Amino acid sequence: MPLMALTNGTKLGPYEIVAPLGSGGMGEVYRARDTRLGRIVAVKILPSHLSDNSTLRQRFEQEAKAISSLNHPHICILHDVGHQDGTDFLVMEYLEGETLAKLLEKGPLPLAQVLKYGVEIADALDKAHRTGIVHRDLKPGNIMLTKSGAKLLDFGLAKAAVPLTTGATLTAAATRTTPVTQQGTVVGTFQYMSPEQIEGKELDGRSDIFSLGAVLYEMLTGQRAFQGKSQLSVASAILEKEPAPISTIKPLTPPALDRAIRRCLAKDPEDRWQTARDLLLELKWIAEGGSQAALAPLGATKGIGARWQRILLWGVVSLLLAAVTGFAIWSLKPSLPRPITRAVITLPLGQRLAALDQPAVALSPDGTHLAYVATQGGAQQIYLRAMDSLDARLIPGTEGATEPFFSPDGQWLGFFVGNKLKKAPVGGGAVLTLAETTFPGGASWGSQGMIAFAPSWASVLRQMSDAGGKPQPLTRLEKGEFSHRWPEFLPGAKAVLFSTTESSFNWANANVAVETLGTGERRNLVQSATHPRYAASGHLVYAQGGNLMAVPFDHQQLVVLGAAVPVVEGVLQSRASGAAQYSLSATGSLVYVPGGIEEDNQKLVWVTRSGTELPLAAPTHSYTFPRLSPDGRRVAVGIAEREAQVWLHDLSRETLTRFTFEGNRNLNSVWTPDGKGIAYLSNKDGAGNIYWQRADGSGGLERLTSSEYTQVPMSWSPDGQLLAFMENNPTTGYDIWVLRLSDHKAQPFLRTPFNESVPRFSPDGRWLIYVSNESGRYEIYVQPYPGPGGKWQISTEGGTEPTWNPNGSELFYRSGNKMMAVEITTRPSFTASKPRVLFEGRYEPSPATTPNYDISLDGQRFLMLKPNQQEASAPTQINVVLNWFEELKRRVPTEKK
């Protein structure tokens, strides 16, 4: 072992060096004892070239702190980061075992071992990638094999390795001995680096997937995927050559595993597995013996292999067709259940499922067609795939569309796009508009020619004729309820299933209800559940905790008849919206997107008026409703995860501090004009009413309003004496009220049968901007305060989330993904310009109509919430189970014993 810097007995803080373990390009590692906790740890000291650079050291510490949050059984835990006497050091979990590199010196591994380690490593990568961390140096030497399985080491440590070197070339990179991470340079071990890593491009999780593919290849074959006599020749092989086929080295390798590894090693990141979770699920499925049942990707593949893949694919499709069309034969033998067939559809290369906070997959009632929402080349559209076909086709007119659903005869496809409910003939033809919406929450097409739908995320269900007409209320919000979503007509269309919740952010506490049409009689069926669907086998199916549950259900008496049973584990479900990615056909088929509870995390970013993004130094969370303090130095923002609380982010100190502690639903914070207080919605005493407290945390919590209905604060008048808020009344919908602080009395400002919401005082206090659906869709309006006076419509093609420019010269609002601006003058009279688009982007929309953004004091930047789940990491796999009802009847019997 080479001479190392620290001797036994040296102390770095509370850590006493016991013995050296090894050294490498990124530093030296020692076995040490934590004198505080009496445990053995591994201490890694960093090389002097990193310690001498304060900027890189600070960046490294920030990265290390982020990695320390990666609590995962297959990631080496980072306990601590320290600096003493000019030495930067890391304190990590001490692992006993050997590295995968050491084990591979003995040759290839057994198939079962390859799959076991592959699943564990992919699981670790999935955890890291979802947290926004890329490994960058995945290789056998960074995988420790312990009694508890594989452990990833040095996670992300290479990210801040050396100063930026511009103009890096392949030759220079290949001869470099010190790894770097800045754009234009490379980091990692060459045999396992992705092509984009060698070229010094920006990296995402797909680079790690390439590296994992190289590791899997080596575990299976005992050979490196890319070989050469020098780093330059290895780099050239990675960029230009394909590895030797696994089947020629290990002929008994399952074809599905061979294909999975080849997809990992695709040169273009777009052609690889798009997420570690996709690869994880594929490896699990292969390990469970499913390697012969998978459908190949729908996209074309080059070379002779493509011909054989299509032959194999036709064979599998024929099997699926036999299962579907063989119903008539099997029905002649009632004593024999129909065969259950499982398959996997992998989307064509370049396609990824999209809009996953809403239903993205739909089966036709007869089970012959699958519609799904996907992005390709940056465009989001709906694709239709016949289940007896190899190809999917684009549905024209569905650009930006979400939530597909079929008519009962399967001849029409309904969907939402551009704040409208539309329908299109499946066979091709004109797209027809049926109704106006904002942020819809699902739809169902009944057998009587009616469509039930949720026009917004904070509304009751409405129904209308499938030929068009005016939508009519179908359900009624009960006390404390926020939203009804995800409707499903029961057979005969005389009753409707739906989800209901009291929260705008967390559907883990939602309920499944049923309402009889005509009488309005309603019954709650299941608690802590969402996204219900009726199965013709006599079951109610719903989502709960990322799984599908089923319970026997009498659709005529509208009662559940037994205990619920989990029937499918790991179905992608949005915690924020309650949407679950599955669909049933009347003929017994099931499709679903594998996954689980999808955390709806976002990043805080500044966006300029031209659309340029400037990220804030803040961790990702499930943020809601950011509000800048009057001096622009702090942000009050909701973090809505297991519960909703208001937090304060200091922009200069980059700290995030919890502000609210009483109640589990504290949202919609509003700063007082002097910046000394914050009002917010709280359920501290049961109902969602308005409270306030001092911004410095001193003093007590004071209740400002008291009502049995939910009340949401929106805006203070400039003098701080009036608070405009909205109230959710079951009879009149959302109404606008104004609270007078001097006597705590509230008076209605707008109370009509329509929804009026989001009242916001102008900077001079003379005007109120608000949202109303009086025209049939949500638009932005302005009225003088306190009145009387006229009313001006600001938006022209729908709008929500309005706010004022702090200088009073402009109004801003959102229309879909667009940020709109309108210039105004108020003297001698009110005038407004034509709305114009400032920028467009996929930023987190409001779950209601309330602004989910804020504007800087100079009116030049917008504080937006950018989803952390990027398009490149979206799923590409849809699981199919034909004749699933047979399994459902076996696992959840409907007959009484």
Please explain how this structure is put together.
- There is one protein chain.
- This protein has 897 residues and is an alpha+beta fold.
- It has 4 domains: 94 residues, Phosphorylase Kinase, domain 1 (2-Layer Sandwich); 194 residues, Transferase(Phosphotransferase), domain 1, CATH 1.10.510.10; 303 residues, TolB, C-terminal domain (Neuraminidase, 6 Propeller); 267 residues, 6 Propeller (Neuraminidase), CATH 2.120.10.
- It contains 14 helices and 62 strands.
- The strands form 15 sheets. Strands 1-2-3-4-6-5 form a 6-stranded antiparallel sheet, covered by helices on one side. Strands 11, 12, 13, 14 and 15 form a 5-stranded antiparallel sheet that branches.
- Helix 7 crosses helix 10.
- The N and C termini lie far apart (72 Å).
- About 8% of the residues have low confidence.
Shape call: globular
Mean pLDDT: 85
CATH architecture of the largest domain: 6 Propeller
The CATH topology of the largest domain is Neuraminidase
Strand order of the largest sheet: 1-2-3-4-6-5
Low-confidence stretches: 158-188, 291-335
Can you tell me the CATH superfamily of the largest domain? Answer: TolB, C-terminal domain
**Number of contiguous helices:** 14
